[in-house]
Specification:
This protein has helices at residues 8-21, 26-35, 43-52, 58-71, 77-86, 91-98, 103-118, 125-139, 143-154. The chain is mainly alpha-helical. The radius of gyration is 20 Å and the shape is elongated.
Length: 156
């Protein structure tokens, strides 16, 4: 039933079920509609219906995404912003959701992750600093948050 063509009503019912269990953004809903063979002309109507019934809320989605990615995946805000932009979340909603992050907890998470990585690295202090900075950047951590940890822990 995954790629089976659905009627408009079946698609709307299925999306209500999906969105009641897990936050979705409009882009993800449209991908599902396309997969189910729902004509493009009906996409906006489905989105409007789901939004009016509170099954779909971009701010709620962005907030949950930010919290989950920091808490469970240990992503940095740079990476989170990028992914939310790719999902079509507006800058205003994105910045509002990112603004809710507790900066002390975030800073602590970054320090913990960099410390964990540092324990697995070998080399001179400068080489370790570079490797940690590269690692942190790949995780989406801001240099301003990494700087204090890097300088304190690598001896530079």
């Amino acid at each position: 039933m995954k790629n089976e063509k659905k009627s408009f009503g079946e698609a709307l019912d299925k999306l209500r079920q999906i969105c009641s269990r897990q936050e979705k953004c409009p882009a993800e809903v449209i991908l599902l509609l396309k997969r189910w063979g729902i004509d493009d002309e009906f996409h906006q109507g489905v989105l409007t219906q789901l939004k009016s019934e509170k099954y779909l809320d971009e701010y709620r989605y962005a907030s949950a995404f930010v919290k989950d990615k920091i808490r469970f995946d240990h992503w940095g805000i740079i990476k989170i912003r990028y992914y939310l932009q790719q999902k079509g979340i507006t800058r205003e909603i994105l910045e509002n959701a990112v603004g809710q992050v507790d900066r002390d907890e975030y800073r602590h998470m970054i320090g913990k992750e960099l410390d964990k990585k540092r324990k697995s690295l070998k080399g001179k202090p400068r080489e370790i600093w570079v490797k940690l900075a590269r690692y942190g950047s790949s995780r989406g951590y801001e240099m301003e948050y990494m700087q204090e940890f890097l300088n304190k822990r690598t001896g530079d």
